[in-house]
Amino acid sequence: MRTSYCGTLRAADAGREVSVCGWVARRREHGEHLAFLDVRDHTGVVQCVVARADAARPEHVVKVSGTVRLRPEGTANPSLSTGEVELADCKLEVLNAAEPPPFVLDGHAEVDEAVRLKYRYVDLRSARMQRNLRLRASVNSALRRAMERLGFVEIETPLLWTPTPEGAREFVVPSRLQHGSFYALPQSPQIAKQLSMVGGVDRYYQIARCLRDEDLRADRQFEFTQLDLEASFVGETDVRAFVTEAVKEAAEAVTGQRPPEFDQMTWAEAIARYGSDKPDLRFGMEITDVSGVLRASELKALRAASVKAIVHPGGASTGRARLDSLVERAKALGAAGLVWMRVVPGDGPGALEVDSPVGKYLSHGERSGVLAACGAAAGDLVLLVAGEHRRSCEVLGQLRLDLARPAVGTGGLRFAWIVDFPLFDGVDELGRPQAAHHPFTMPNPEDLELLETDPLAVRALSYDLVLNGWELGSGSIRIHRADVQRRVFSALGMGDDEVEARFGFLLGAFRYGAPPHGGFAFGIDRLVALLAGEENIREVIAFPKTQSGADPMTGAPGPLGARQLAELGIKIVG
Ligand code: ASP
Q: Does residue 123 form part of some domain?
């Protein structure tokens, strides 16, 4: 129907007879018999000079044929890719009429998200959504390219999977043929991909939809997409190299530049330096341990085992009300308190002093010792938290983000591998260790003997990939021996019957020749959002759900009719 896309016409096309198709973005009358129509498709808009444009209203679907010509002197629009030209002597055909749109698509108006989602098919016409969807498609295709180059085979794993008795919250699908039985939609293809390794696949990947019935947040939807991969006869560094290659290829496809080498640090180092296992490396303000300086302090609170500090450059001008709110924030995060010190010039050249509620309780040596240890300069604000190591680091890590985190889309792309996670992360209310990743993660062989005696000290062969403070994904070398797997299940507090009911088929597979294997999965929605400079993953998903899990467009979730319920053997109670 057309010869050209709207947004592609340029001065060099002047004189060409072309046809474009799309939606009317704007109509401006010019005298009685002439109008300018901006016609839009996914490539942009082009101005068309049309006689008798009355029939063309905003969002009408049109075909316009005309001659490309340079716009008259002084009327070019530099903010438009087609701003030097227009279509003249146009023939206008209305292919379909449209009612007035529910909102204007000029990219300027703030439109309520619920309204955007209700009319998503209109919203998708916006330049922003077109850009984001196409960016996402190029990320997917780059990931596929990289995985295939690395010898990975795309395998589709089932959507109808087995429910995990008493496991995490899953979406379930009732069976029509076996009333009272249910499938579960996969939270991840984790077990299926491990079984494919037992099946000799060697290198598996999938752009996999995963479903988790968890509370929604800005970076979470009920269903999300992962690049999921698994490989046999590999170690940690192999898996990280595969993922690095795929992510670099995707980032390069979008930005045109290959990202720099990824940072790498241990989990313990990430906690100590940034107070987080997903550190945002786009800015400094690292945590310093100043315990040594304050060991003999007159202030009991600061003689704690662990005193940590961060320096907010230029923060000395922070007002009292803001400082009070920082103290409250620190307490809400679990600190006993927060000590602040504004750094001011002291007597004599280069000397520093502090303006702080605790200043008079600290000796001169302690005050200058703290400033020297954390490298503070006049005009800075120093924040101190005393207490248990991890808690103090995490509180300051959060304040660091509150005070200085760059906006999404700024500060470049800082990827980091976090390695050597603990196998377990704390204990539940019954005192049972909780898996830091999932129960299939291989314990570090050096720590195997601690599994029964000091489980919280066991390190895992696991690793996370972090980008600008977002966890992109995680992976590990897996357990491939039934005896080790049973020990980990038992450390997690699972009895033999429970293990059999939930994971009997996996342990069964381990009896028939399971190769050593490991893998990874990362969230494509998150990666695409960060590459697109979007704060919310809903902006990079064609048809997302709202924060409450609803779809305002289709009305999902919705009720089932009586016949369907009967067929499924389901009775609604309450
Ligand atoms: N299955 C894990 C997840 O979805 C990732 C992995 O370990 O491969 O988080």
A: no
Q: What b/e string do you get for 353-363 counting C-beta neighbours within 10 Å, with b at 16 or more?
A: bbebebeeebe
Separation of CA 223 and ligand 1 centre (Å): 15
Residues 186 and 260 in one domain: yes
Mutate to test the pocket of ligand 1, among 437, 441, 479 (most ligand atoms within 8 A of CB): 437
Helix extents (H) in 68-126: 113-118, 120-123
Q: What distance in angstroms lies between residue 393's CA and the mean position of ligand 1's atoms?
A: 27
492: how many CB neighbours lie within 10 A of its CB?
A: 18
For residue range 6-26, what is the model confidence (pLDDT) as tens digits? 999 999 999 999 999 999 999
Range of the domain at 33: 6-96
Residue 194 beta carbon below 6 angstroms from any ligand 1 atom: no
193 CA closest ligand 1 atom index: 8
Nearest CA to ligand 1 atom 4: 188
Q: Which among 407, 388, 411 is positioned nearest to 333, based on CA atoms?
A: 388
Q: Is 188 in the pocket of ligand 1 (CB under 6 A)?
A: yes
Q: Residues 36-51: what's their mean pLDDT?
A: 96
Q: Does residue 104 fall inside a structural domain?
A: no
- Whether residues 447 and 507 fall in one domain: yes
> Is residue 566 domain-resident?
no
Q: Are residues 423 and 387 in the same domain?
A: no
Distance separating alpha carbons of residues 71 and 80, to the nearest angstrom = 13
Report the CATH number that the domain containing residue 26 is assigned in CATH: 2.40.50.140
Query: Do residue 238 and residue 363 come from a single domain?
Result: no
Atom of ligand 1 nearest to the CA of 473: 9
Model confidence over 459-480: pLDDT tens digits? 999 999 999 999 999 999 999 9
| Domain contains 158 | yes
Using the predicted structure, report yes or no on whether residue 278 has a pLDDT greater than 70.
yes
DSSP track, 112-127: -HHHHHHTHHHHTTSH
475 touches ligand 1 (CB under 6 Å):
yes
